[in-house]
Amino acid sequence: MKLFTAFVAVAAGLTSINGFAPNVAFKTRHFASATSLSSTAVDMKSSLATAANEARGLAMDSIAAAKSGHMGLPLGAAEVGAVLYGDQMQYNPSDPQWMNRDRFILSAGHGSMFVYSWLNLAGFDLPMDEVKNFRQHHSMTPGHPEFPNSEHNTPGIECTTGPLGQGIANAAGFAASEKMAAARFNTADHKIFDHHVFALCGDGCIQEGVSHEAACFAAHEKLDNLIVLYDSNDVTLDKMADYTQSEDVGARYEAVGWDVTTIDGHDIDAVTKAIADAKASKNGKPTMIICRTVIGKGIPDIEGTNAAHGEAGVKFVDASKAGLGLPEDDKWFVSDGTRSFFNDVQAKNKAIYDDWQKTYTAWKGSNPDLATQLENGLAKKQPSADEMFAAIPPMAAPAEATRVSGAKIINNIAELVPTYISGSADLHGSTRNYIEGGGNFGAGGADKTYAGRNLYYGIREHAMGSIMNGFSYHGIFTPSGSTFLVFADYLRATIRVAALAELGVSYVFTHDSIGVGEDGPTHQPVETVSGLRVIPNLDVIRPGDAEETVGAYVASVDRTDGPTALIFSRQNMDQMDGVDVDTRRQGVLKGGYVAKKETGALDTIVMASGSEMQHVMKAFADSPTVRVVSMPCMERFDRQSDEYKESVLPSSVPSSGRFAMEAGVSAPWYKYTLGGKVVGVDRFGFSAPGDIVMKELGMTAENIKAVVGK
């Protein structure tokens, strides 16, 4: 009987061949009677335990071959991966973009060999040669998981992770998007969205503040389709976790409204039950499963220590594999039994997929308009820029702030693109990006439903950016979100990931300069626009009037291969009524254009963006040899053909005849002035009415005219 009990314990993952043993009382509670397990259950657990050790072996061999990587999580959380991919998640490797698949996000992205191993075992199109090619140039297995983009296409990777904590917030975005999709597209007769979102995180993710921001949002909006598995191994990179962490994480998450359960993360029975219970729960609470694990499990020389985090265990790999029942000399070993087991898993999931396809076909036949809206959202099929321009009438606005112009235009956009959504970090009243009639997103209440198109993020900019990325990764909705420009740095890390992952998200940043005035230098961004411009693949658009704001909004929605930051003013600005409407709108799409053409022999070019356009237009209205160029978006302008750029900024005009003006740091403009003078603000501002701050710091028509001397 003792031998049989030991076999059952190993098959269930309660012990391992290399000697890890959890609390005996815990073991007894679940396995008090051997007869409580059917032979099928024992076979399942045995297969999962074998797969877990073989996944460990894949991680060991790939990291050893690369001489680089993070071994701790792939080895320590192997049983979690076995249960997710071998039992509890619904997916179809032959259709990795199936819209109702469960999503898995590896928030602790440094442990990327975890997900690569399981994608290979689960049957995704990630060949073993690519697993062997871990962290190499042009491989499908980069150092951290990367969302399919122009550089990488790894089926089964749901989002780009690595900056710790963001994955938890991304997962909250996925979960919110699924709730929105279910509310907008499910019907009483057909349910086409009912999937779950899983995230695996570590202590680093928990310590990063963005995870807590997102946890509060997820709990408040009752995202009970979100399941976070916390690989709790008491280790961080430098030290054991208790060197920097003493909080009760479970109590903290319970306090904000999560269901929390703590399990032995190597006990396959416990992992299975915890995930199954979380999936079945409909109590309006997201779930955190704290998986107590041993980091680097399977390499006795380093397991349970901070040395296991990286590749320190490489030199012990061959000796350790025997302890896991793996052949020492057969690298990247996967048994026939494991391949056969996952063939059966695929068949089970394929049956679920086929049943769903029947439901979807019936739903589509009964709801053709909804089907068109959904499929257009997934395909990012929407009116062209020209069609949107045609549908938005001329603004015919008085002098007004571009945030005020934007308040009208966003509603035009929302009407043209039904899957466009908005949100704000507690600033809708100031940023003016509310979709009228769109409803508010959230869990019940007098004016909140999951179908609502306006998200209230609270004062959580970092989480807002990550949640917006989650919406975009999920693939149906086109997210935008707002805050004051000076707070863009709170979400800068998420903007960078959006640019890297080529996500079509939009940021509405208002209160764009020293024109903010009385709030003083803490709220007057002078360096922020330029700081955003240096992020690769981010378009930064600072429009100069209402029609340019139309162009900015259309450009942001039309772009699907990267994010766009819209920079809007608090202060009023004059309209460029002397410039054709279409010229202004189309000029934004090109990034820069001639707003005022010289009438005589060209010898001077003056460039500007945003509210400074009114000053240069006024200053040189009667200057026959001066050309005024509006440059709302440097990134778009730089992508134009050499011929177009030459037509706007002729090389015949030397640096002595080139000038620029912007109420921000001057550095970015010198590539266009070729060293010519830039009237900028290379210092912090001060508290005073906005027009006084602008005048004192040289942002006037009189000053730019004096500098140019025309």
From TrEMBL:
GO cellular component terms attached to this protein's record: cytosol
Protein name, as recorded: transketolase
Active site: E461 (proton donor)
Example GO molecular function: transketolase activity
InterPro entries xref list: THDP-binding, Transketo_C/PFOR_II, Transketolase-like_C_2, Transketolase-like_Pyr-bd, Transketolase_bac-like, Transketolase_BS, Transketolase_CS, Transketolase_fam
Keywords: Calcium, Magnesium, Metal-binding, Signal, Thiamine pyrophosphate, Transferase
Positions of transmembrane segments: none
Binding locations of substrate: H70, H309, R403, S430, H511, D519, H523, R570
Reactions catalysed: D-sedoheptulose 7-phosphate + D-glyceraldehyde 3-phosphate = aldehydo-D-ribose 5-phosphate + D-xylulose 5-phosphate
SUPFAM superfamilies xref list: Thiamin diphosphate-binding fold (THDP-binding), TK C-terminal domain-like
Family membership noted in the UniProt record: Belongs to the transketolase family.
UniProt remark on cofactor binding: Binds 1 Mg(2+) ion per subunit. Can also utilize other divalent metal cations, such as Ca(2+), Mn(2+) and Co(2+).
Amino acids binding Mg(2+): D203, N233, V235
Assembly mode: Homodimer.
Xref: PROSITE patterns: TRANSKETOLASE_1 (PS00801), TRANSKETOLASE_2 (PS00802)
